[in-house]
Amino acid sequence: MAEWPGGARGALCLSFDNLGVDEASSAAKALPGLLKRLGERDLTATFFVEGVNAELDPDALRKIDAAGHEVAYHAWRHETWGDLSTAEQAENLARGVGAFAGLGLEIAGLRPPGGQLGPGGVKVLREAGLTYASPAGAGVGVEDGVALLPFQWRHVDASCLLPPLGAVRERMTGSPGAIEPDAFLAYLEAEIERLAQEGGFATLVLHLQLLEWLGEPNLASLLDKLSSSDAWLPRCDLAAEHVLARPEAPTGEATLDPTSWSS
Predict the structure, then answer these.
(1) DSSP class per residue in 11-25
(2) How distant, in Å, are the alpha carbons of 20, 212, 248, 256 from that of 232?
(3) Whole-structure pTM over 0.85, yes or no?
(4) What class, spelled out in words, does domain 10-246 have in CATH?
(5) Looking only at Cα atoms, what is the longest distance across the chain?
(6) Banded pLDDT at 262 (limits 50, 70, 90)
(7) pLDDT at residue 224 in the model
(8) Phi/psi zone of residue 68: left (φ > 0), alpha (ψ -120 to 50 degrees), beta?
(9) Every domain of the chain and the residues it spans
(10) Which end of the chain has less neighbouring CB within 10 Å, N or C?
C-alpha cells in the first residue's frame, strides 16, 4: 500500500537554500530566472531563506510566495544552528518568525544551517509554532508533534565541493575529490528514478548561489526529470501535513546524521 498521495511509492521535496545575507547577493539575482523555470514546469519548491531577507529583500520573499512556493526559515543570518544555545535558538527563531509575519508570511519549518538541530531540538520549534524540521538525516517521522523531514548530504549540491564533506563524496563516487556538475546531475537523476520505483522519502537541496556552478542545461535537465517523475513532489509544509496526519505509519523511522559542513 502506497504511503503517499496519488498512489505514489515515493515522495520528494525540492528545496533551495540561501537567499543571501546582503543586498548584493548572487543568490537573489538568480531567483527570477529560477522562479520562471519552475513555473514553466508546474513545479513547487520550498525556499529556506535567512530571516534578514525580510528586511533586505522583502519583494523577493513575496515573489516566492506569490509563485506558489513555500518560504521557510534558515536562521537569521545563516548562523550554525547546532552551535546556538536553546535560548539563542528561541530568540533567533522568534526574530525570524516575527519578521516574516510582518510580510504576511507564516513560517512552518526550519532547515538548520549546518544540518544539526542542536540543544533546542524540536521543542524550541514547537514552542515557536513550527510544524516541521529538515535536519541532516534519513527517513521521515514525527517527534513530539513536530514532523521530521531530513535531507541526506548526498542529495545536496554543496556536498560536491565543501572540504569537510569528502567522506560523503567517497560514499557517492568512491573518491573524496570534488564532484563535477554533470556527475552530480547523473547521480540525482538516478536517485529520483530509484525513489519513484522503490519508495521512501528524499529532499533535494540546491543553493541559489551554486546554480551557476550546476549550469543552466543541468538545471533544466533536473527539473525536467522531476516534472516527469511518478514520485509525489510536495512542498515541505505539505509533506509535513501528510506525515503529521498519519504519525502511526511514517515511511521509515527518521534518523539524524551528525555530519556537518561546519566541522
Answers:
(1) EEEEEEE---SSTT-
(2) 29, 27, 20, 23
(3) yes
(4) alpha beta
(5) 49
(6) low
(7) 98
(8) left
(9) 10-246
(10) N
